[in-house]
Specification:
Number of strands: 2
Strand content: 5-15%
Order of helices and strands: HHEE
Distance between the termini: 27 Å
Strand order of the largest sheet: 1-2
């Protein structure tokens, strides 16, 4: 689930729960709205937990110390703190 989908589910759940007053036989739209809001919030949290740390990493290329000029370039990954 992507971030946009989670936000849409959260908004749709809020509309069903708080703004819509329709009786449908066999379905409680307020419960469906709460479920959609929970799923949307969980999707946002998981999206930030899974993809958030990856976007803060930066790959830099540096010459290795004492490596010959024709040698391979050494890659390092550093975590940035804000």
């Amino acid at each position: 689930m992507r971030l946009g989908t989670a936000i849409v589910l959260l908004a749709l759940g809020a509309i069903l729960t708080f703004a819509l007053r329709v009786d449908v036989s066999g379905v409680d739209l307020q419960v469906v709205g709460w479920i959609l809001m929970i799923v949307g919030a969980l999707g946002i949290v998981l999206e930030m937990a899974v993809w958030g740390p990856r976007s803060r990493r930066r790959v830099t290329q540096t010459e290795g110390y004492g490596a010959p000029a024709s040698g391979p370039v050494q890659r390092t990954t550093t975590d940035e703190t804000y």
